[in-house]
Amino acid sequence: MKTFTYRTATDVAQGLEPGATFLAGGTNLVDLMKLGVATPDVLVDVNRLGLGEVGDLPGGGLRIGAGVRNSDLAADPRVRRDYPVLSEALLAGASGQLRNMATTAGNLLQRTRCRYFMDATMPCNKRRPGSGCPAREGDHRNLAILGASPSCVATHPSDMAVALAALDAVVRISGPAGERTVPVTELHRLPGDTPDRDTVLEHGELITAVDVPSLGFAARSAYRKVRDRASYAFAVGSVAAAAQITDGTVTDVRLAFGAVAHKPWRAFAAEEALRGRPATRESFRAAADAELAAAEPLRDNAFKVPLIRNLVASVLEGLA
Amino acid sequence: MTTTTDRAVGQPIERLEGQDKVRGTARYAAEYPVGDELAYAWVAQSTVARGTLTGVTVDPLVEADDVIAVLWHGNAPRLSEADDPELAVFQSDEIRYRGQALALVVARTLEAARRAAGLLVVEIDEEPHDCVLRTDHPDLYTPDKVNPAFPSETASGDVDAAFESSPTTIDVTYRTPALHNNPMEPHATTALWDGDDLVLYDSNQHPPGIAAAVGTVFDLPPERVHVITEHVGGGFGSKGSARPNAVLAAMAARVTGRPVRLALPRQALFSMVGHRTPTIQRVRLAASSDGRLTAIDHEAVEHSSRLFEFAEQTVVATRHMYAAPNRRTGHRLVRLDMPTPRWMRAPGEAPGMVALECAMDELAVALRLDPIELRVRNEPSVEPESGVPFSSRHYVECLRRGAERFGWADRDPRPRQRREGDWWIGTGVAGATYPTMAQPSTARARRLSSGDYEVSIAATDLGTGARTILTQIAADALGVPLSQVRVRIGDSTLPKASVAGGSSGSASWGWAVTGACQALRSGDPSSDEAVFDSTELVQQQEKDGKHAFGAHFAEVRVDAVTGEVRVSRLFGMYAAGRILNPRTARSQFLGGMIMGMGMALHEESVLDPAMGVWVNHDLAEYHIPSHADIESIEAEWLDEQDDQINPMGSKGVGEIGIVGSPAAILNAIWHATGVRVRDLPARLDKILPHL
Amino acid sequence: MDLVVNGVEHSLDLDPRTTLLDTLREHLGLTGSKKGCDHGQCGACTVLLDGRRVNSCLILAISQQGASVTTIEGVDHPVQQKFVEHDGFQCGYCTPGQICSAVGMLDEVAKGWPSAIGDEELTDAEIRERMSGNLCRCGAYPNMIPAIREAAGR
Fold it and tell me: Tens of pLDDT along chain C (154 residues)?
């Protein structure tokens, strides 16, 4: 691990000098620092900024502090009652120990688990721009089928972010230039030819909270994660869904997919295809196909297309 | 014999070191305090699979206050030649695999050592590499023998004619991936020199073997190398012989004059300490219409490294499992630019029995015969290839009793018949076998002035329960209660023990312990010490015809939505001689079965041929079973008597659980879904497209 | 920096890079917490930090000024004896982490925290899911479950 200086942040808007980065739960950053993947000169600890509360938004909805631990958020009675998809996604993510450490913002900002990114001795356009992407020809079974580029086929590993994307959550950001908000669906970028940038955050900007708007029918929502063992593994595919079904018709729906793209993948096309349709397996599968029509699987990850299609149908059937 | 004697062996005695392990006081190799001068070492590994190391440059400004030494081929002390070329660290500029140790940084702190190792400038002339195992590789050859000393090929009768004339034949190819032992404690050594004597706190399965091997490279007789191995955090074969960490730590300690600690990072275990070779196995079976095998033909293709030939005995179990008049077995090897494969739990039997026992299931389907019945019909009366009678063989009883206990009788033989909600449900069976071995060992028994006894042998307990079991054996042989016996193990200066491997520890060490205790008990009462060396007795023993057997039964459910497999029930029934300690033996069986579940469903080291490396080299990406993967699992055994094997009548229990359990799970997946996965592990993406 | 470990205050002068795990093992001589992967992928390093179970390998000690840590050496809980009785370990290397994790997990259950299983009672399936952050290569899992269940008084 490279040497760094450590200090405690005192203000959310203070920004960061070049080479500095924020430290929250550390579950991803310390991991990457040990691997030589992250090499900050300065660590600015944001754990004492008082961002650890979940509050009610005026007019409904929740404001989740950036520093709220994943386990506390998953256990929050309001989350469990009003947004079960979020609680379930958190509980499906990581282990009890990691959830006790990991924060809301840190979870959103965790980096890809692409095996080439994680090994500093390998080429990787995300870690070392211009060095190449061995995953395209090499190991990519668990990499992207949607929105990838020739330079990067990485996936975003978060479960929580998939639920937040489905819930129209909004990220609140502070920085030297002031405050701004960005929808979770727009926080993460697609790789394009600059895969080294995961998100639209500018250097020194700090996520202070995530607002989850009121969404009545989100009380009927669910998260389903598929992985290579029964627990304690990253997703190979996941679906977050909330549905409003009236008299057998889908009147409104939210859908997002995990482990399929460089970002939590909000399935707008599928939602559009479903609204006003009968709540049947056929229309659920057709909606999934509307989204997955854009999929461009690689040699070894084409299975994710039927996997996501089946998951969409199964999760929505469970909500219907 | 006294009543006391009858009590210890066979009793479910709790592990003697249990309290130390649950309170955190049991010390492992990297945990001994050795003074303030302790230095930490970190290995810099090759990032290419083949080439020549031309230079290592150290930036003197990096961790300048803390770096003590940087060792590599250009400056390392010369070592004497070892039997194992992997121990010739920094003796050559040749790079034979990605991950090979190229340099070692020794520093005052762990953080500095790691950082400096990452910043070394390593210059390499890279050459093209070849890492892919395939059946048409032009360099495939037949090794002279396979491990440890079996003929590579055997043949009898006319296999091809039998295939021509038999009404039912199958011809299938099964693939098993490279696997990594991944004991929870990574390989570690703390080394210090005491004058010209070397002290190693080392995590291994064989202290005397480590003393001899490390002694050889440093020109020391084994008695000048003191290996201390009180507790071992698992090994599963990967700590059976000295690994490079022991030599590197000793070298660094000699050069720096300080005690040096080298604990390998998890990632390095994927290249530096061994793996199970991938295999490609073709099995052909021919049978008469009444389900009698007329021919068995089993060939395995596997790899070794450029450094030396390690030939896994993959098809050896096929030589004694079933009767058939015409038989052929063989191994083909190719040397690739890969790390050297080593022993991993049930080397040979574990991958070999996947192919054989799945093929038997496929044959049963082709014959429309119950898979248990097929196996029963092909039970041999003597060992089929050697002609030697079995010292004991209760395979059929394991199948029958296991079937009863598991509830096999009402099974619908047709696949894809049982569905509950989204789950396809099915059951499968497979046989298990493991050779019963013993190796020469020596033990010493002493009567102490307190009236208690001390029994010493340089064995190790890597979680097998050896410390406890040897105490039970000693107590019975001495005719005293357990509380009067103290067993000392885990130290190379104690009487010489064989390796904790091949499921032979209890048999080998127990034999020596029994001998020493009986000699003390029956010898001259004025003598307070007796030593017993089992070498002669062990060497006189007939080696063939001695095996443990078992049967594994699995019930799986396969999610029709996702292709995910869950093992609802896993059951093992064993005939493994006398069970010395039911508590620890059951744990050994279950542990083997769980590793077998990992082999069936989760575990694979994923090769990137272009990079020449297994890319999933950590515990997040190399999946071993987690708590949540284990549902109902149980092991039982028959009360098997065998007086031809060793004084205890015991067979090994450490490995048989991984033999056949993967096949039982794969066969159950077929029964649940109709999908025959012949390429392990049975990941969801191999099943889902066919559901 | 100051750290309270098993009720004892320590004043430490550490490299900022030093993890809590390495602080315990290399600076305080508390080697009961194990290093199995050093990346939060195995759970062998689990300790209780201000009462909550965490992976000490992923925590920089310097960020824990004033925190209270309980390691296996400071745990005295019925689950330990139950592990011995049920043979809930073989090699013992994952054991301290399993036990610290179990202690923290039972506290989470007492607080009413949910798991991915969603059972109302602390069923075996619940214990398995909640303990899945602790790997055991020996496969002692089936023996740990009754040990934990009984320690929880069920």
Answer: 999 999 999 999 999 999 999 999 999 999 999 999 999 999 999 999 999 999 999 999 999 999 999 999 999 999 999 999 999 999 999 999 999 999 999 999 999 999 999 998 999 999 999 999 999 999 999 999 999 999 999 7
> What is the β-pairing status of strands A54-56 and A62-65?
antiparallel
Q: Is the Cα dihedral B139, B176, B156, B361 positive or negative?
A: negative
pLDDT (tens digit, 9 = 90+) per residue, B12-56?
A: 999 999 999 999 999 999 999 999 999 999 999 999 999 999 999
Distance of CA A124 to the CA centre of its chain: 21
The structural domains of chain B, ordered by start, are 3-27+438-540 (3.30.365.10), 32-128+182-272 (3.30.365.10), 145-179+276-436+544-690 (3.30.365.10)
Residue of chain B whose Cα is closest to the Cα of A303? B685
Domain boundary among C74, C104, C138: C74
Handedness of CA C7, C9, C12, C14 (dihedral sign): positive
The packing angle between helices C95-110 and C78-86, to 10°, is 130
pLDDT tens-digit map of A186-199: 999 999 999 999 99
* Residues C82, C147 share a domain: yes
Tell me the chain C residues in contact with residue B620 when contact means C-beta distances shorter than 8 Å: 39, 41
In the predicted structure, residue B458 carries a pLDDT above the cut 80: yes
Please state the pTM of the whole predicted model.
0.98
CATH number, residue C50: 3.10.20.30
Q: What is the CATH number of the domain that holds C112?
A: 1.10.150.120
Catalytic residue among B63, B86, B385, B655: B655
pLDDT digits 0-9 by tens, B608-627: 999 999 999 999 999 999 99
In the residue annotation, B14 being an active-site residue is answered as no
In chain C, which residues have their Cβ closer than 8 Å to the Cβ of A92? Answer: 116
Residue B75 CB coordination number (10 Å) = 12
Which domain range does residue C60 map to?
Answer: 2-74
Q: Quote the minimal CA–CA distance from C129 to chain A in Å.
A: 7
Can you tell me the ipTM of this complex? 0.98
Shortest alpha-carbon distance between residue A117 and chain B (Å): 11
CB contact at 8 A, B514 and B620: no
Question: Is C68 part of the contact surface with chain B (CB cutoff 8 Å)?
Answer: no
Last residue of a domain, one of C45, C74, C103: C74
Task: With CA atoms as reference, report the closest residue to B653 among B471, B498, B437.
Answer: B437
Task: Give me the residues of B, 501-560, that contact A with CB < 8 A.
Answer: none
Give the start-end residues of each E strand in B229-275: 260-263
Domains in chain A, start-ordered, CATH in brackets? 5-44 (no CATH), 220-319 (3.30.390.50)
Q: Cβ of B14 and C84 within 8 Å?
A: yes
